[in-house]
Specification:
CATH architecture: 3-Layer(aba) Sandwich
CATH superfamily: Gcn5-related N-acetyltransferase (GNAT)
Helix content: 25-40%
Number of strands: 8
Strand content: 35-45%
Bound molecules: coenzyme A
CATH topology: Aminopeptidase
Order of helices and strands: EEHHEEEHEHEE
Distance between the termini: 25 Å
Radius of gyration: 15 Å
Structural class: alpha+beta
């Protein structure tokens, strides 16, 4: 289902036909990538999953979130390296926050690597604030085990 179109970008609900491309991009860009079976299972759970496509149907971004205890949890987010710094990551997260608002979900939470400057700046610019720290949460990464910052954004209207 197409949710939004702007400047040629198309935001769609993630469906099984997108999973191979999402898994390939996740493999390329994530430190601990989700596998195809993990992504497929996610589609069976209550959540909000989006993909961003070019007019030629090329996958350039994705966001997967789950509804847990009345909160959205943003689990994975990615934009293909060649398409970064064009506002696509922002578009994906804003769309999630808008969905949370419309659904009356109070808070959106996520974890981010302490070293992930790009993602931290993106989240901060959208109103996320730090509410916690999980020491050594990420076992593998560019610098070995790494802390996670827990960020939250109030989605209430
Ligand atoms: C994080 C990520 C999704 C950002 O996607 P993006 O499409 O490049 O982000 P946007 O173009 O929407 O950027 C929005 C804002 O985020 C910040 N930002 C994005 N990339 C940045 C970078 N490399 N350095 C510093 N700030 C950055 C800026 O504030 C930017 O606003 P500006 O361009 O007006 O300065 C992308 O870098 C990515 O896929 N990274 C690998 C996967 C990942 O880290 N996912 C998040 C896991 S928690």
């Amino acid at each position: 289902m197409i949710l939004y179109e702007s400047c040629g970008w198309r935001l769609e609900e993630m469906a099984s036909r997108h999973l191979l491309a999402v898994a390939a991009l996740e493999q390329e860009i994530a430190h601990a990538p989700w596998s195809l079976p993990m992504l497929a299972e996610e589609l069976t759970l209550v959540g909000c999953r989006r993909v961003l496509l070019t007019p030629a149907n090329e996958l350039v971004g994705y966001a997967v979130s789950r509804l847990l205890h009345d909160e959205w949890h943003l689990l994975i987010l990615g934009v293909a390296p060649a398409f970064r710094r064009q506002g696509l990551g922002r578009m994906l997260v804003e769309a999630l926050l808008e969905t949370a608002r419309s659904a009356g979900v109070g808070e959106t939470l996520l974890e981010v690597r302490a070293s992930n400057v790009a993602a931290r700046q993106l989240y901060e610019s959208l109103g996320f604030v730090r509410i916690g720290l999980r020491r050594g949460y990420y076992r593998h990464g560019p610098f070995g085990p790494e802390d996670a910052l827990v960020l939250a954004c109030c989605s209430a209207k």
